[in-house]
User: Fold these one by one.
Assistant:
Number 1:
Amino acid sequence: MSENTSLQQQLLDAGVHFGHLRKKWNPKMLPYIFAEKKGIHIIDLNKTVEGLNEAAAAMKQIAKSGKKILFVATKKQAKEIVTDCAQRVNMPYVTDRWLGGMLTNFGTIRKSVKKMQSIEKMLEDSSISINKKERLTLKRDMEKMNKVLGGISNMSRTPSALFIVDISHEHIALSESKRLGITTFGMVDTNSDPNKVDFAIPANDDATKSIAIITNYITAAIIEGLQERENEKDKMDDSEEEQHDDNAPMSLGEDGEMGEDGAKKAPRKKASGTRRTTTTAPKK
């Protein structure tokens, strides 16, 4: 309870509770609104803490299973925060512009990423002779592509989940993820529909401090999931080594035979004396 109280205080200090003007509200956000003050809706921070904990727990499990979570935030005030958090946990991100079909037409997007990577290799390779004008053109093309596709350059397949800062602003990304059945997490302000995402976090999605505290909390949960995954891998490796030691080759006896329990059998005693022979009388 004390943890939730301290978290609520941090959310309050960051201004997470400030919503939009009353005239811009979405009626479906009514369960998440605490009150109205001077024409502005105030978000219930108890609901924010509940949604944040549920989202963090789900993201932790996704990260623990080794799957990817795509961070989406193309708003000016959220770009740097989301880029930094996504890079910390080695997750893909989109912070410049969402290209139509980035999920539903992922094959074509992947080709563009490969083209960008091939241009980058070409510019780095000194053995390839390129004149100054061509090099400048290729460099400009690469920078333009990297601005949009740089965050998903290491994403080889569609992600398992999306974390969206403003679901109204990123409606194309949201609709594409819904079409593919991808789990969605989102910061939902009073002007948005919380039913459009699987895990809604009612919060102010315009203030920098509000975006920072929510995104950092989510990132911390992902880090915990990744650490648990690494610990499980280490335990598995240790158990495999122990099994390998237990299955070490067993020693052979003097006559090359081995007991069922791995112990040497006692060597056979050689028979002493002469072998008895029987003779038959010749037939008359």
Number 2:
Amino acid sequence: MPVRKVSLALSFIAEDPEAAAKILEQSKVQEVADFLDSLPLDYQYQVVEQLLPSFAARLCLVISCERAAAILTDLRNEKLAKILRLMPKLEASNILENLPKKQRDSTRVLLTYPARVVGAWMHADAIAISAEMTVAEALLALENEPEISDTGQLYITDRDSKLKGRISIIKLLKAREDLFVKDIMENKVPHISAHMLIDNAQALTLWNEANTLAVVDKESRLQGALNFSDVHKALSQSQDHRYTQSYAPDVVSGITGVYGKTLLVLLNNLMNVIEPDLKS
């Protein structure tokens, strides 16, 4: 395979992974798997991140669970759960076992909820600190968190993980380190049930108070957070069968028919898009 074609294909993926994904979705799953296998791992991730969940699920079924986990490990937990939800339970479980523990645990929480409810679309990795912590202890705990919420708010829970309040990062940083978090937190927290239908969540007046709501279970235990944009995304995708339909039963029987093209032809498909732009 000409080095120039490979180099240009990689450049195309780096420049516009969404366009590359759309092209690959028109090809057969095994061909895409073979193509991705020839790419560095970070390029594989860029493509898979843009694939429709249904296609990504089919892709994961024709590669090893170890390889699938390596590609999927950098995805947001919400996207990962959408993909795994469309796979048979055994294969999805095998991929989960190969993921880092924190990502595995957060994704499992999402998978406990059916796709039509809030819990399936929330961010299960919302950061929470204990109400019994001092400010100094809370700040120390936050040093181990890779990223803080875009809202600048932290949720406060009790020993049973029940939602008790929230506090802004700025307020926490300005507070005396010997104070207890429970004494300076805001007690009123806009929240939503993880079991509420996503169709009903859009009309909540709580969105007038905040763009992000805490998500709790039936026992008021914190499960995650939901953005208003997540609701719109869930509603739009739930109306598109490409996101919600599982193709898993058809994959095994269809594998025998996926060898019609070579990897070179697949690269040529990409080049047909790239080369006109290069000449202009």
Number 3:
Amino acid sequence: MSDFFGLEGPFMRFFDKVFNLLWLNILVIVCSLPIFTAGAAFTAMHYVVLRMLHNEEGYITKNFFKSFRENFKQATIIWIPAFLIYLALAVDAYLLYKGIVTLPGMYRMVIYFLLAVATVGLVFIFPVLSHYNNTCRGTIRNAYAMGVYNPIKSISMVIVTAAPWAGLFFKTYFIPICFLFGFTVPAYLSSTLYDGIFKRFEEEERKARERLEEAGSEAVSEAREESESETENMIENGSETEAENKVENKTETKAENKTENKTENKTETKADNKAVNKTKNKNKKRNRKQKQS
């Protein structure tokens, strides 16, 4: 029994978590009062409760405002249009439910369906944003993908999140419960559901990354083999062309030598013929002079 009620026992750990959830709920309410900052507050809340689920909560306030600052811009960009769309759908659904507004059955079903889709998106968007670095479009896409592919967990998360606030319509004593634990207890219970989805998603992503790396290494090896074969072919072709060039050079030099020899012989014979003709002409002139004398 002493271990059960000790400082490190399960009893004290349970009340420590209860106090942390209470304090975290107050932080969420205070940081959501301007309305447009509620998205960043919900994102920071899910960041802290997921750490609490893994017993890594550390300092609640420090971790809360760390995530609040890091995700403020992206969470606000997602939250404001999502809040306005969800508010419009919720008001329409309430008016239809109370009979204040009447619409044909098909239009009524469309509004209820859109409200359900928006609800599934809201329960997943801020946990995904708190856990992954992605663009706004990528965060919304991943949130809806997780919600659609895990319908049972999605419905359970919607029920858990809406339960304390739905109680306000029936009993007034839900007001202090919602003020103390209305956001954080449903978020903590939801984290036990989406934590498994995150782990499976990360495992699939890791396997896909490994397959890409394997495919990339195979492509690199194939490209390397192709480049090596190309270089070998170039070397072979280069040696062949060198031999051909040598043969061509030899034949060209032989032909040039022959032509040079022919031209030299022709010039020599021409010069000899000229010299012989000159001597003949001189002899003829001498003979003529002797005859005249």
